[in-house]
Design a protein that fits this description.
alpha+beta; 5-stranded mixed sheet; 13 helices; about 25% strand
């Protein structure tokens, strides 16, 4: 629906239906305001195409862009034209199109977020619910390191929708993994925008606790993620990026001979990194990450081997995770997610 020569959706539909393209006044006004506020932008004739709709179509306003969408029924067939960029497409579908398609009802959704289970196992566990779904519906989506479930229902109001969604959510979270772990324990949050990091940062603020980190293979990614959130300075004083053995020793005061004896990719090193980082910054939590990002092995450990330590006043926990068969970037990203999940569980247990 854009302004360039290869944006032919509306033109093609208009030609197919034997109709003209006409201007939508609201979309034109939005164009006027956009260019009036940006005098450095040149307004060219092809920009005007973004305000056109097929003659007789109901316009679908674009909340986040300039190209207006449209919905048109001809001979019992409903035609819909939508923008391509997800940032424009999603709001238009959810807020403009779906309410018009469902007269007397509205689509309500709830997103459940899971960490610690793969999409294939989750889908297998929920196969009967997925195969027999009518309303509410259930749709799984795999993301890097996690899985989300979108629960959707048509209802006349939020209260009615909540009743249906609560029942389905209860059925889902009552299931167990093949290892006997409750899905309730693996569901860490709700919503499109939630993340393990955001939940941990908010919980640290809520409990008034501070955190630091000493990172090797992730090279500061955990700390950078914490700092992405406003108000991070209230929970994060600073930390350490200790990529080499020498810097682990120098910055964290871990004897070189101990590091050489145990190896930098080890439970011992993860424990000492977490404890020393916590001690040096006087933080409530000291988090460490050391391992093999890949693609080559290190100290006999295959790529994807990661040790994560979490030091607190009452002791230190170290976990080992294997993130094999992934790219270097994915190993680092998923390792950080495991780190946040370790902190999340510690915060919930307090």
């Amino acid at each position: 629906l854009g302004p360039t020569e290869d944006d032919l959706t509306k033109q093609t539909l208009a030609k197919f239906l034997g109709k003209e393209l006409v201007f939508d006044s609201q979309a034109q006004e939005k164009l006027d305001v956009f260019f009036a506020q940006r005098p450095d932008y040149a307004r060219t004739p092809n920009n005007e195409r973004q305000a056109q709709i097929v003659e007789g179509a109901t316009p679908l306003p674009n909340e986040t862009g300039l190209a207006v969408g449209g919905m048109l029924e001809v001979n019992g067939v409903t035609y819909v034209v939508l923008p391509g960029p997800p940032s424009e497409l999603k709001p238009m579908v959810l807020n403009q199109l779906l309410p018009k398609l469902m007269t007397g009802s509205k689509l309500y959704s709830r997103v459940l977020r899971f960490f610690g289970i793969g999409e294939s196992q989750l889908v297998t566990i929920l196969s009967d619910l997925i195969d027999n779904q009518t309303d509410p519906t259930l749709a799984p989506y795999a993301k890097t390191g996690e899985v989300t479930l979108r629960l959707s229902t048509k209802a006349s109001n939020q209260e009615e929708a909540n009743q249906a969604l609560h029942i389905l959510e209860h059925q889902i979270l009552g299931r167990q993994t093949f290892e006997g772990i409750s899905l309730r324990d693996l569901c860490y949050g709700y919503g499109e925008e939630a993340s393990l990091a955001s939940i941990v940062v908010e919980e640290l603020k809520k409990q008034g606790k501070t955190i630091t980190a000493a990172e090797s293979l992730t090279a500061g990614l955990f700390q950078a993620t914490v700092a992405d959130f406003s108000g991070a300075s209230s929970i994060f004083k600073g930390g350490f990026v200790t990529y080499s053995l020498e810097e682990k020793s120098k910055m964290l005061d871990i004897p070189v001979k101990d590091l050489e004896e145990h190896g930098v990719v080890s439970e011992f090193t993860a424990q000492k990194m977490a404890e020393q980082a916590r001690s040096k910054t006087q933080s409530d939590f000291g988090l460490s990450l050391t391992g093999v990002a890949g693609p080559d092995s290190l100290e006999g450990h295959p790529a994807g081997t990661v040790f994560i330590g979490l030091a607190q006043e009452h002791g230190t926990e170290v976990i080992k995770v294997n993130i094999g068969g992934r790219s270097r970037a994915d190993v680092r990203h998923i390792a950080v997610m495991h780190a946040f999940n370790l902190v999340r569980k510690a915060l919930l247990s307090d």
